[in-house]
Amino acid sequence: MQSSSERSEYPAHWEADVVLRDGGTARVRPITVDDAERLVSFYEQVSDESKYYRFFAPYPRLSAKDVHRFTHHDFVDRVGLAATIGGEFIATVRYDRIGADGLPASAPADEAEVAFLVQDAHQGRGVASALLEHIAAVARERGIRRFAAEVLPANSKMIKVFTDAGYTQKRSFEDGVVRLEFGLEPTDRSLAVQRAREQRAEARSVRRLLSPGSIAVVGAGRTPGGVGRGLLGNIREAGFTGRLYAVNSALPPGRTDLDGVPAFASVRDIDEPVDLAVVAVPAEYVPEVVTECGEHGVQGLVVISAGYAESGPDGRERQRALVRHARAYGMRIIGPNAFGIINTAPDVRLNASLAPEMPRPGRIGLFAQSGAIGIALLSRLHRRGGGVTGVTGVSTFVSSGNRADVSGNDVLQYWYDDPDTDVALMYLESIGNPRKFTRLARRTAAAKPLVVVQGARHGGAAPQGHAVRATRLPHTTVSELLRQAGVIRVDTITELVDAGLLLARQPLPRGPRVAILGNSESLGLLTYDACLSEGLRPLPPLDLTTQASAEDFRSALSRALADDTCDSVVVTAIPAIGEASVADAALAQALRSAALTFPTKPVLVVHVELGGLAEALSAAASTAPQPATGTAAAGTSANGTTAAGTSAAGTPAPATGTRVLHPADHPPTEADRPPTSAVRPPTAADHPPTAADRPPTWADSPPTGTTAPHPPTEEPAAAKEGEETEPETEPDSRLIPAYPAAERAVRALAEAVRYAQWRRDAADPGKVPAYEDIDEPGAAALIDGLLTRGQGLTLGATETYELLGKYGVDVHRALPAPTPDDAEAAARALGYPVALKATAPHLRHRADLGGVRLDLADEEQLRRAYAELTELFGKPEELRPVVQTMAPRGVDTVVRAVIDPAAGAVLSFGLAGAASQLLDDTAHRLIPVTDREATSLIRSIRTAPLLFGWRGSAPVDTPALEELLLRVSRLVDDHPEVVAITLEPVVVAPHGLSVLGASVRLDRPPARDDLGPRTLPAY
Q1: pTM across the whole model
Q2: N or C: which end of the chain has fewer CB within 10 A?
Q3: Cross-strand partners of 83
Q4: Residue 646 scores a pLDDT above 50
């Protein structure tokens, strides 16, 4: 509790930005003495009915005494918070601490009365719910455990705010007033309510950006050229269905349009509402634009402008000011330094990006923090012929740039219940809030696949412009935690697209058994080997020989799909000689026909891309013209650009006004650069891409019960001049992916197999056992007493044994032995046989260095061992020797738990010894760990066979090990002040286990924003 001298200090850490129910934002902050005029102005705008509900009587205006009382707080016993937009109050909440008699009181009284007032124009936006979360967190911080509120029965909205919050409540009715009392400790229901509100609010905030009814492009040049004019053209040419405006402060008098788009000198001059502003002006002019947009009621900004945090410290401060400025008006920002956004929905058709062509509509959502990688992803999904076909396109695309505000977490919230997105693909260079990302990813992955590639994995620092929380966990650990949350982790954007396209239109495999068939024995064997390397269980390849006809393929695929011993089928094909195009078309039709008959198993094709199979597989959905053999494709210019506005590779050609990318945009490496499609036979002078770099393609086949919850509704793209029209396809048509290399197909299939298994496991996650012998109150009291010594405390041996003992973790005692006589006395006290160990930091847990002597049966052996250690390693004061009772022989393991500031509480397990450390053979799980997770944790390390009887050794007691892991998990979860535990070694014997060493560190726990009120990242 604060002292009187601290009571008047302004609690700046209570300030927060929140997303409201409709997707707008508001600022929550403490009310101070400087807010008197704002309070009076706010109260004047509240209706008489709302005032009556607040004060239970007509109360037309606040007296000077009221204003003083509502603006003077000690921030301990009396606290007031306000929600503001544009600096003005839209709602207030306050609490007053009371005693058992209901009168004002101070600590140790732990109850307070709470009251709200919300401006009528902002009622229904979830303002009161957000304020309740924040005032409850403040009250808990100040030692208040219960709120009481008196509400008139007619004030149903306020009653609903309290009853819907999810806290444990008591309700009574007396003297015509409803009295509500509720505890403030978070409950499972209150957290569920809070997170559901968070999801709806953040999803709507992104939806307002992606589905605007009107757009203003600020910075559209008066003449062709420039980024702003290019953006204006891209939006117009994509067929945006809403109202579009151009804004240029230097617009000459009398000019009213740019390229037929209504033009204005300022956003303020636009007569109609503007939902979204796309800003492409130099950074120094952006603040003025933000003010204009905020005053006009613009809901969100896409800031293309560069010159922010990516440019250095001055730019970082400029970026912070931009976010603060925009949020003051309730606006959210994508960017700055963003590539833009795309929404292909037919009722929106938005291309507010630097991509000169609108991607084809589809079921895949894309998020990229890098503009260059965003270009690469769009190009790969845009490609025809040897690439991806038209019907597998994009639902929405967001390139966040410096992600100063809207991040991948926000987009995940939107995709979670977006009916137009079946698969989410994300390129991330940093994760600002891993704890929240993991939580959202787990929920999203339970509904639809989420595929992630992380850039800058080995750079050691986040890209400039990204605000990232410090973490002590290595990248491999964070990646493993993401996988446990259901994220499909891949290493390159090629793998990102490969896996995403398979998941977009094929059913999830029911298991790892793979049938392989094709007309090339060698290609089949390569596929077989690739399956083994990826942990799949391939059946022997079926060689149909090079003479196989399309009917032979159809018949073999039908038999394989009907076979109950396989879960998926990989078809391998080499091109026919001679009439290749005819044979390829027939083969594609045969495969589609077989897949139609058995719709519950995924089918993939591996082909050698020398013939036309890729084109034939995608012919039913492609709008690309078929190139003439041996000649350049019709309509292709000398520089490789087609009349349709794409390169010969199918990559969108840059439009006029497209900016030159910064070096900081992280352009793709040569290995990831989109390949070009051959339009003539390759010659010795050409450098065609390798199989590993070619994009996958698709084949049509009828519906098969794919995991996608919503059928595609996209319409075929209109044929452009010089292109063939595509045949109409069924809206639910399933696509067969074709890959140019066996390892690419199998890697994508393996990811699908692992994801499907995760989905099955997630349906039954297990439970956290309740052990009757755990003394949680005793542990809490012990921790509180220890922390009175100060923060950052590493416990001594006795305190460590006592704390762990309260959770049923017994540690073998080790007694110090500074002299041979002390060693002998310790051995007598413990009982022979004993072990003698050196505990100096450079020798601790290093039996391989010879600092341990075991099975010392008597005093003679003990003294001889003591002499050997001191002779080898130095004086006793340097060795720090201890004597410990012998434990049964077994396998040495290590158990650790740590609370990481970014990722949260993590439990780790591995075998002890240099080999495991060298190979980084450690597995991790997020705390709290369930019984199923403890079982999988033990089995997930590569050296796990040593625990289960490897090479004839006796299996160890893994149930005892699982129980130990669960007890440690409970201790850290129950007491976040326990920030680190290490148990090493833990010797697991065939019957039971022995903890031979332990250390515990206590500290003030890191802030748990996932348990606190909803907030946006601070700037």
Answers
A1: 0.80
A2: N
A3: 28, 91
A4: no
Q: Name the residue with tokens 């065609």.
A: 688
298 close to 277: Cβ distance less than 8 angstroms: yes
- Angle at CA 420, nearest 5°, toward 673 and 19? 95
Q: Write the single-letter amino acid at 35.
A: D
Q: Are 370 and 665 in contact (CB under 8 A)?
A: yes
User: Which is higher by pLDDT, 633 or 219?
Assistant: 219
User: Nearest 5°: phi and psi at 215?
Assistant: -135, 140
Residue 581's identity, in one-letter code, is S
Cis, bond preceding 928 (omega within 30 deg of 0): yes
At 3-59, the pLDDT tens digits run 433 456 899 999 999 999 999 999 999 999 999 999 999 999 999 999 999 998 889
The neighbouring-strand residues paired with 427 are: 368, 453
- Tokens 């110090």 belong to 816
Q: What is each CA distance from 648 to 372, 432, 941, 985, in whole angstroms?
A: 19, 39, 47, 62
Count CA within 13 A, CB hemisphere, residue 212: 26
Both tokens of residue 703?
């519906």
Question: For residue 76, what is the DSSP state?
Answer: S
For residue 235, give both structure tokens: 């939006």
| pLDDT tens per residue, range 400-429 | 999 999 999 999 999 999 999 999 999 988
Kindly give, in sequence order, each residue whose CB lies less than 8 Å from that of residue 386, ignoring residues fewer than 6 positions away. Answer: 609, 614, 615, 677, 678, 694, 695, 697, 740
How far apart CA 552 and CA 571 sit, in angstroms, is 12
Separation between Cα atoms, residue 195 and residue 720, nearest integer Å? 47
CA distance 98 to 758: 50
The pLDDT assigned to 850 comes to 77
- Give Cα separations from 300 to 277, 327, 401, 776 (angstroms): 6, 10, 16, 48
**Structure confidence at residue 429 (pLDDT):** 82
Give me the chain's average pLDDT, please: 83
**Is the preceding peptide bond at 985 cis, omega within 30 degrees of 0?**
yes
What's the CA gap between 515 and 682, in Å, rounded? 34
Identify whether the C-beta of residue 702 lies closer than 8 Å to the C-beta of residue 732: yes
Q: Which residues lie below 8 Å from residue 241, measured CB to CB, with a gap of 6+?
A: 347, 348, 349
The set of residues, in sequence order, having a beta carbon less than 8 Å from that of 360 and lying 6+ positions away, is 344, 381, 382, 390, 391, 392, 393, 394, 714, 717
Give the whole-angstrom CA distance, residue 680 versus residue 682. Answer: 6
Residue 626 has what pLDDT? 38
Concatenating the DSSP letter of every residue in 366-400 gives EEES-HHHHHHHHHHHH--TTS--TTS-EEEEEE-
- In total, the chain counts a number of residues equal to 1019
What digits encode the pLDDT tens for the residues 684-727?
A: 333 333 444 444 443 333 333 333 333 333 333 333 333 333 33
Pick the more confident residue, 657 or 124: 124
Q: pLDDT tens digit string along 462-486?
A: 555 555 555 667 777 878 888 889 9
Residue 457 has what pLDDT? 56
Q: What are phi and psi of 220, to 5 degrees?
A: -70, 120
Give the number of other CB atoms < 10 A from CB of residue 165: 22
Terminal CA-to-CA distance of the chain, rounded, Å? 28
The span from the CA of 608 to the CA of 617, in Å, is 13
Residue 868 one-letter amino acid: E
Query: Average of pLDDT values for 651-669?
Result: 36
Using CA atoms, how far residue 201 sits from 301, 405, 444, 723, 1017, in Å, is 17, 15, 16, 44, 15
Q: Note every long-range contact of 638-643, with CB atoms under 8 Å and residues 24 or more positions apart, other chains counting.
A: 640/676, 642/722, 643/720, 643/721, 643/722
**Model pLDDT for residues 810-828, shown as the tens digit of each residue:** 998 889 999 999 999 999 9
pLDDT at 458: 53
